[in-house]
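can u do me a favor
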């Protein structure tokens, strides 16, 4: 089992920055990929960024050059640094951890960007 707890959301003006954190606990060593997703009302959850065990990262086109995913293995924490935020980035953000058999989700955290 893996438990995930997000923090760092809130409200910011367009052009501002936020850093989301996702603290992981439990069977950490079984995780091989972690992702950030976001979801707006009435829409499906979409992948924002991912990071593999190897450190390889990938981003949705809409956030490339603005968002950076990283992980601190010593702290068992995943991060999403979000710069130059836009109103369309407003969403509930979720972190996800995948093992070979399972996927785990955090509770979600609201990010609101005002114009």
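np, heres the sequence
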């Amino acid at each position: 089992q893996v438990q995930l707890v997000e923090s760092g959301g809130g409200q910011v003006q367009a052009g501002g920055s936020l850093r989301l954190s996702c603290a992981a606990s439990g069977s950490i060593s079984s995780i091989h990929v972690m992702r950030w997703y976001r979801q707006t009302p009435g829409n499906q959850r979409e992948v924002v960024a991912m990071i593999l065990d190897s450190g390889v990262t990938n981003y949705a086109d809409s956030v490339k050059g603005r968002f950076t995913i990283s992980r601190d293995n010593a702290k068992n924490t995943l991060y999403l640094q979000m710069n130059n935020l836009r109103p369309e980035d407003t969403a509930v953000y979720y972190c996800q951890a995948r093992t070979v058999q399972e996927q785990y989700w955090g509770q979600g955290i609201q990010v609101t960007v005002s114009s």
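The longest strand covers residues 18-26. hope that helps!!
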